[in-house]
């Protein structure tokens, strides 16, 4: 892809993330309770329209996104788009698959940074912060390349505590934790990403 075209697609992807995950209501873009936006409304929005973004552009960005962040769906003859996860705006969990306790994978982890680990521990654990869920995965490809720490979750203990897990359409696992937190007592282990060395987070 031409560097100019690649830069444009990155801009489109970031704009879709902002509008569909966080800014739809603020930007007066109609979004339903499940996070779906009618495609024509999106294309007519000033943020998108000012860059002359076409339906073909959006479809290309959706198809080429390496984390499958977005999904397209037809309903009553109209095309809709939604973000698969990562919302801070209030939407229902209907587009997510609620997992039975026996279906929660044992190897879920969250990627973060060594510099942030002390603050995570001091604040009580992994927090959903301003989002609706804490994001977890079993797939290293879904972790930012710059993350140097992996926090593995004791999902069995989480389930025993009544924590509910969901799976999104792009195989990201989501949880609200307990009060928006998954505490250090629910960590299975913390390790360095490259070396796999164990990190003694209890001492931080």
From TrEMBL:
GO terms for biological process: tRNA splicing, via endonucleolytic cleavage and ligation. Keywords: NAD, Transferase. The keyword NAD applies. InterPro entries: Ptrans_KptA/Tpt1, RNA_2'-PTrans_C, RNA_2'-PTrans_N. Signal peptide: none annotated. Gene3D superfamilies: 3.20.170.30, RNA 2'-phosphotransferase, Tpt1/KptA family, N-terminal domain. It comes from the Eukaryota. Its EC number is 2.7.1.160. It holds the Pfam family PTS_2-RNA. One of its GO terms (molecular function) is tRNA 2'-phosphotransferase activity. It catalyses: 2'-phospho-[ligated tRNA] + NAD(+) = mature tRNA + ADP-alpha-D-ribose 1'',2''-cyclic phosphate + nicotinamide. PANTHER family: PUTATIVE PHOSPHOTRANSFERASE, TRNA 2'-PHOSPHOTRANSFERASE 1. Catalyzes the last step of tRNA splicing, the transfer of the splice junction 2'-phosphate from ligated tRNA to NAD to produce ADP-ribose 1''-2'' cyclic phosphate. Belongs to the KptA/TPT1 family. This is 2'-phosphotransferase. The lineage of its organism: Eukaryota, Fungi, Dikarya, Ascomycota, Saccharomycotina.
